[in-house]
Design a protein that fits this description.
Helices cover 8% and strands 42% of the residues. By secondary structure, it is mostly beta strands. A hairpin with a 5-residue loop joins strand 3 (60-64) and strand 4 (70-75). Helix 6 (1249-1287) packs across helix 7 (1304-1317).
């Protein structure tokens, strides 16, 4: 249920958001920018209108690009699996077990065309079962598939893309054993194709083959195997058996008649269900039994019969997957719901086996499909794991087809004892005997089990010992001696077994052959008191417990090699191979049929691999589903060696003693170093002489690597040695792939394990990447939560990965990313944190804040009077608690800052939060804070003692790093605040420590600095005093004299966030849950540095509750934003302060929202103007956001009216992540968009100075040439007009010639003046008079512009006159650009020229600078600046 709720939370994906254009944040204007939070993966929601949730019941396939970013392609039907893929001529073929992929109906195989993004099925007669492997044959342009299917070939089929047709392989197919083909590869020369899996091949010649004889005690049926017919049925005489609904015919309505029918199919020996109903048969034993499968015999009475069924086990209520032999093909098939029951009347029964032996109390069989009018059965039996015997006689009834039941004998006094199983209606009875302490073995009670064994074979004999906790007899338990007699010719086995186990235990007594000497043969297992019993007993007595023995059949056969445990059948004149088959491409043998005996002409030198495997594994037919054997993966090294991995153990032959991984070289199967691995191998990957191995192991078979090979290992072929990949993974690996120097591991794991016990490992769910060159685990690029079944290379720039996924993100990021400007299509450029952050180890001790018992009288004191340090007791208003911070499970980065190392000029990011990490070469983990070099992607710790806790705020002031949070430093009094000198790499412990109140620990949420106070650091959060100074919630630290000072009369409560406003940041704005010294409650308050006073911003009624984040819009204290939670915690809010009152914005925020940061960000473009936020900027709202319109996000952009979801993140578990901080290297920046209105400054800002000079010269030369050309043309035109006038005989001179320049220079000056002033180059006397008459007496005298002969004269004249009018700046201008001056809102100005509605020339009286500013929608922006006066 928890995962389901996460799915809803994480992927409520913006169905109501439709963005035509996404805002482009100008990250570069803020310097280097980092985004930090509690997340492991993220998506930028650019141009996203909808997305679909992930359903882990389906299999989802992704593409992965060279950077590791993931793109979702499609998902299968529910229950589908994707297992393999390959690429042939730009078409990708995907295989598995599915009926649809995306919106395309496709059965087990589908094709994907990346260029069109389309899926397609492959014909209509493809594989009719699961496809495990696929091989794209580029040589013959064919696609080979292998798996578990019967058509079009036996477990192997071939697709011809040109003919668009399926066919069986030239050797018909592969069968036997489990009849599975798990791997199809080629040799290094591409001349042969290798097939691997669980199957049998047979060739003529001397050798051994599988035993094909069924158990003679059981009636023969083609629906059984030698293995299944050897499993003794469990007696059900005392079980509760119910069939419902049942027919009303009294001859066929007794369900118990089919448990062990006494006659042929018919009245009194068969059962019918009611007509037209789905029937259910329920069998309950009310005690735990070991069941390996079911045996069903159909009824063939007229109008009745079952065609489909399923089996659900009790009490786990699980529909089981069943395996059976197809009576037509003889092949092993699998099914679930429904499973087919044959309608062939020649079949007495069919055996259906589970994946493994199940410990259950019953089954329910659903007869869902039938022939005729109703379902019916003739035989129903539960098959045991092999054989069994219980100490309780009533459980040892006669089994069907057995000549006698299992039996027991005993000496001494044994009584029945009942255990509490904690399962309703289920009992567990055992026999116990008491014996006096000191009794000898010869005089103690004895108990002997004699289980009936129906057939010879290899068995495991297990003794079940019930736990003493359920029986409440732990103190009286002791040890016993057990003797096993397997049969004639085999030596007895004696073992001493402890019965002091707390929980139920299954103890292996013997593993090897049992050889019945007669049809009624029984093995014997005898138990008595141990020769040297352990324990002291209770009240002078020991208690011996007798429960059950179980014999688990491992393989069957008719002979054994003198008790060695390996058996094999014999078929004269054949050689058999297991699990490996080579088919040379050159073969054109028409009669080759690998499902039968192959002709010798098909035998190759490499077929010896299969024969050696067959002999080494004991000749098992592979039908022992409790522990199936198979070769799952093959890798061919250029040297000719062939490596084979899988699930097998070899007990004989040249590789005897090996398990799960062997090599074939020099014509013989050989062991690897340390005899292979201790768990199954699923995948192999060759990279030169490096063999990467993935699977479900933890070490070599001999344990030589100390348990460091968990899930993945590296084998060096050259020197035959094993190496670990870090400490491995905490789950099995299903697939391996090589891309861009990285080994990609896909599987069912959640963590990269840490090499050090002091670190908890790196959360990595389903996909992990190992950098071969660096020799370390790295960020895989994308992020996924789930169990992956496949990863593979399709092209040089793309991989495919698939699995059962609950969450995924395009970008994998371990708590932090770096952001730079991108383009409108791809969005910003993102660089994830290149170092790995770990979770804290489970054994990590909690944070302990030490408190001093007395105050040091020599501690630094404030200049304030001591009387101000004590408060009179009075009734004060109870403040609401702060909203909870965003969930931040490790690893989480909660704060960041940038620092440039002056010695190396390298800029590093400093990150803090809740995480640990290992510095390369160190075995000790560091916590909470790190130095990260983005260029080298390396991480370093601070020297000296390490923090113990969580960092929430960082400030770099010069070379000093101020760290705030909730932490201590061992060996110091540090509590929530620390100072570290980055230049000397030393802690500054001289600052008096912060102290908390009785009920609240110290938490520093903000460490900041105002530009107006050079030597003052502002520390805010939850604390009651600093050193000896009572300075609650916010306090100032003077760096010049290293003492604490209270701000004004102080405040009380808890501070969550600090921002600055006013001229030169002379006003501090604090938010949280706050009251002033006069008990005025206001969750946002302001402090003036100039007059040392606090004041409330608005009234407490205007804000719904405590404020968790605050932002002042570019220093304008009449434009403040606040976010928080209502007092009762039921809702969240975003409010705006306009200098007069608070107004609620963002009403669509839902109650679960937690806002951690508000910050204004500049834009590359603009948005529609409104009265709240200027068009050139947006408010970024970060945290854990839930909104009724866009759903869930971690950061959203607010334009004054609407939220635009920006970033969505996920935690390592797939739950919603959170963004806590956007941090930047520039302490201040301009929101002005110079590149739009002032193109000259774009060149200056973004190009090198030398390039700018060259471009300026070129532009100037071009302008001069253009003006000269215009002047020449004008002169020629004027002379032409003069000639025409003379021809007309006009004597009167044109008045305008009085003002027309008579020289080229005057033409140039006039044209230049026109360019500057925007007037016509020559003015008539009439126009001059009009201009003079319309002159504004309150404006500046601009006559100098008209009279000037050059632009310099115009400007010089203007400055000489200084005709102006007074004005005040409405908005602030930070003047961050080259040659610019800052202007604060309200500053006094002198306007010199405002005739142009777009530009204003004004004088800053203090600096005597003339500046040209641009007005856009009321926004003031400097474009050019004149020289000083």
């Amino acid at each position: 249920m928890l995962m389901t709720s996460y799915r809803v939370l994480v992927f409520s994906l913006f169905s109501n958001v439709a963005l035509a254009t996404f805002p482009l944040i100008d990250f570069d204007r803020m310097g280097t920018v980092g985004l930090a939070g509690a997340f492991a993966g993220l998506d930028l929601l650019q141009n996203t209108s909808s997305s679909l949730p992930f359903d882990p019941a389906t299999s989802t396939i992704f593409s992965r690009n060279v950077d590791g970013a993931l793109t979702r392609l499609a998902s299968t039907n529910i229950g589908g699996r994707i297992l393999a893929s390959c690429n042939l001529k730009d078409v990708i073929y995907v295989t598995g077990s599915f009926s649809s992929i995306g919106t395309t109906a496709a059965s087990n195989v589908a094709s994907f065309t990346p260029s069109s993004g389309s899926w397609a099925p492959l014909g209509s007669n493809g594989p009719n079962g699961e496809v495990h492997s696929v091989f794209c044959d580029t040589r013959d342009n064919k696609v080979w598939v292998g798996g578990t299917f019967s058509s079009p070939g036996s477990n192997v089929a071939v697709w011809d893309p040109k003919a668009e047709a399926w066919s069986r392989p030239p050797f018909v197919g592969l069968s036997g054993a489990q009849a599975k083909v798990l791997s199809i590869t080629t040799n290094t020369s591409d001349s042969s194709i290798f097939f691997a899996g669980s199957f049998i091949t047979t060739f003529p010649g001397d050798g051994t083959a599988l035993n094909g004889t069924n158990n003679p005690n059981v009636p023969f049926s083609q629906g059984a195997t030698p293995f299944s017919s050897s499993l003794v049925p469990i007696p059900l005489e005392n079980a509760q058996v119910d069939g419902s609904p049942s027919t009303s015919d009294p001859q066929f309505n007794n369900i118990r008649n089919i448990l062990c029918p006494s006659g042929a199919d018919g009245a009194g020996n068969s059962w019918f269900a009611a007509d037209s109903f789905t029937a259910f048969i329920t069998v309950r034993t009310f005690s735990f039994i070991s069941v390996n499968g079911v045996r069903l015999g159909n009824t063939f009475q007229s109008g009745h019969g079952t065609s489909g069924f399923s089996v659900t086990t009790i009490p786990d209520n699980k529909v089981q997957t069943l395996h059976y032999r197809d009576p037509v093909t003889g092949q092993t098939q699998s099914c679930s719901d429904p499973c087919p029951l044959s309608a062939d009347s020649s079949l007495l029964y069919q055996d259906f086996l589970f994946d493994s032996t199940q410990s259950i109390t019953g089954v329910q069989i659903k007869l869902s499909e039938f022939t005729g009018t109703a379902a019916g059965l003739h035989i129903l039996q539960l098959l045991s794991s092999g054989a069994f015997a219980s100490s309780v006689e009533s459980n040892n009834d006669m089994s069907c087809f057995a000549p006698n039941p299992s039996n027991t004998t005993r000496t001494g006094d044994w009584v029945v004892k009942l255990a509490n199983t904690h399962i309703a209606g289920t009992t567990q009875n055992v026999l116990v005997a008491e014996v006096d302490v000191g009794t000898s073995t010869a005089n103690s009670p004895t108990f002997t089990w004699m289980p009936y064994v129906s057939a010879s074979g290899n068995y495991d004999i297990n003794l079940l010992v019930p736990g003493c906790t359920n029986f409440q007899d732990c103190s009286s338990r002791t040890s016993v001696k057990v003797t096993v007699f397997p049969g004639e010719g085999l030596q007895p086995i004696v073992a001493t077994i402890s019965q002091q186990n707390d929980d139920d235990a299954t103890i292996l007594l013997y593993s090897g052959p049992i050889l019945p000497s007669s049809p009624d043969f029984v093995a014997t297992i005898t138990m008595t008191l141990a020769d040297n019993p352990v324990g002291s007993g209770q009240n002078g007595k020991y208690e011996i417990v007798a429960d059950r023995v179980q014999l688990a059949l491992k393989s069957v056969g008719t002979s054994a090699s003198n008790g060695s445990g390996s058996t094999s059948g014999s078929a004269q004149g054949t050689n058999s191979g297991f699990g490996f088959f080579e088919w040379p491409r050159s073969f054109t043998i028409a009669d080759a049929d690998a499902t039968k005996t192959l002709p010798n002409s098909t035998l190759t030198a490499l077929d010896v691999i299969g024969m050696d495997m067959f002999k080494g594994a004991g000749g098992s037919d592979g039908l022992s589903f409790a522990n199936p054997s198979a070769i799952t993966t093959v890798a061919h090294h250029p040297s000719g060696s062939i490596y084979l991995g899988g699930n097998f153990t070899l007990s004989s032959g040249p590789a005897s003693g090996s398990a799960n991984l062997v090599v074939f070289k020099g014509g013989v199967l050989s062991s690897l170093s340390s005899n292979g691995l201790n768990g199954p191998v699923t995948c192999l990957l060759l990279n030169g002489d490096q063999l990467f191995v993935g699977g479900g192991f933890s070490d070599t078979l001999s344990g030589s690597m100390g348990g460091k090979l968990k899930g993945i290992a590296l084998y060096n072929i050259e020197n035959g040695s094993w190496s670990s990949l870090g400490a491995g993974l905490n789950g099995p690996v299903n697939a391996l792939s090589l891309a861009n120097g990285q080994v990609l591991a896909a599987g069912n794991f959640t963590q990269v394990l840490a090499m050090s016990a002091s670190s908890g490992g790196v959360p990595t769910t389903g996909l992990a990447a190992w950098d071969i060159k660096k020799g370390t685990w790295v960020n895989s690029g994308g992020f996924v939560v789930g169990s992956l079944t496949h990863v593979g290379n399709e092209t040089s720039s793309m991989q495919l990965m698939a699995g059962h996924v609950t969450a995924a993100r395009k970008i994998g990021a371990n708590g932090m990313i770096m952001l730079k400007n991108g383009d409108s299509k791809t969005g910003p450029a993102i660089t994830p944190l290149g170092a790995q952050l770990d979770v804290l180890p489970e054994s990590a001790s909690p944070i302990v804040v030490r408190r001093r018992s007395s105050i040091n009288s020599s501690a630094c004191m404030s200049h304030l009077l001591r009387s101000k340090l004590f408060f009179r007791q009075s009734t004060i208003t109870q403040l609401s608690p702060l909203p909870a911070s965003v969930p931040a499970p490790a690893p989480a980065v909660l704060a960041g800052a940038f620092w440039t190392n002056s010695s190396s000029s390298v800029e590093v990011a400093i990150i803090g939060g809740n995480f640990s990490f290992l510095v390369p070469g160190s075995s000790t983990a560091s916590e909470a804070i790190a130095l990260y070099n983005p260029i080298s992607a390396t991480i370093q710790r601070l020297q000296g003692p390490q923090l113990n806790g969580t960092v929430r705020s960082l400030l770099v002031d010069g070379n000093l790093l101020y760290i705030g949070g909730e932490f201590t430093i061992p060996g110091t009094d540090t509590n929530g605040l620390a100072i570290f000198d980055l230049s000397t790499q030393e802690w500054d412990t001289s600052v008096p420590a912060l102290r908390g109140s009785t009920n609240l620990p110290v938490i520093v949420r903000s460490v900041s600095k105002s530009s107006s106070r050079e030597h003052t650091i502002i520390v805010a959060g939850t604390f009651s005093q600093a050193g000896a100074l009572h300075c609650q919630s916010v306090c100032a630290y003077d760096t010049s004299n290293r003492q604490w000072n209270i701000l004004g009369s102080g405040i009380r409560g808890e501070v969550a966030s600090i921002a600055y406003g006013g001229e030169n940041q002379d006003i501090l704005v604090a938010s949280g849950s706050i009251a002033l010294s006069d008990d005025t409650v206001s969750n946002v308050v302001g402090y003036s540095f100039s007059n040392n006073t606090w004041a409330a911003l608005g009234t407490v009624e205007e804000l719904p509750g405590p404020v968790s984040a605050i932002e002042v819009n570019n220093g304008n204290v009449s434009s403040v934003f606040a976010a928080g939670r209502s007092t009762n915690g039921s809702s969240s809010f975003l409010s705006f302060w306009n200098g007069v009152k608070w107004t609620t914005l963002g009403s669509s925020l839902q109650g679960g929202t937690i806002v951690s940061q508000l910050t204004m960000v500049p834009l590359q473009d603009t948005h529609s103007a409104n009265g709240v936020i200027e068009p050139d900027r947006l408010l970024m709202v970060s945290g854990l956001l839930f909104d009724s319109k866009f759903g869930n996000a971690s950061s959203a952009l607010f334009d004054g009216r609407n939220f635009i979801p920006f970033v969505q993140t996920s935690s390592a578990s797939g739950s919603p992540g959170a963004v806590t901080s956007l941090f930047r290297s520039f302490s201040s920046f301009s929101f002005s968009q110079r590149r739009r209105y002032c193109s000259a400054e774009v060149v200056i800002d973004f190009l090198a100075v030398g390039v700018v000079i060259l471009i300026s010269i070129a532009i100037a030369a071009g302008v001069v040439f253009l003006i000269a050309l215009i002047g020449i043309l004008w002169t020629l035109l004027s002379r032409h007009d003069d000639k025409l006038a003379k021809l007309d005989g006009g004597e009167e001179e044109d008045d305008s010639t009085h003002y027309r320049p008579s020289s080229l220079l005057e033409h140039i000056n006039a044209a230049t003046r026109t360019t500057i002033l925007g007037t016509r180059p020559f003015t008539t006397e009439k126009e001059e008079k009009i201009n003079h008459d319309n002159h504004d007496p309150f404006g500046p005298d601009t006559s100098d512009y008209i009279r000037a002969e050059t632009p310099s004269d115009a400007i010089g004249g203007l400055l000489a006159e200084e005709t102006s009018r007074p004005a005040h700046a409405r908005y602030s201008f930070d003047g961050a650009g080259e040659g610019e001056l800052p202007i604060s809102a309200g500053a006094e100005l002198e306007v010199l020229d405002d005739r142009d509605p777009a530009y204003v020339v004004f004088l800053i009286s203090r600096f005597r600078h003339v500046d040209l500013y641009h007005l856009d929608g009321g926004m003031l922006e400097m474009c050019t600046q004149a020289k000083k006066v």
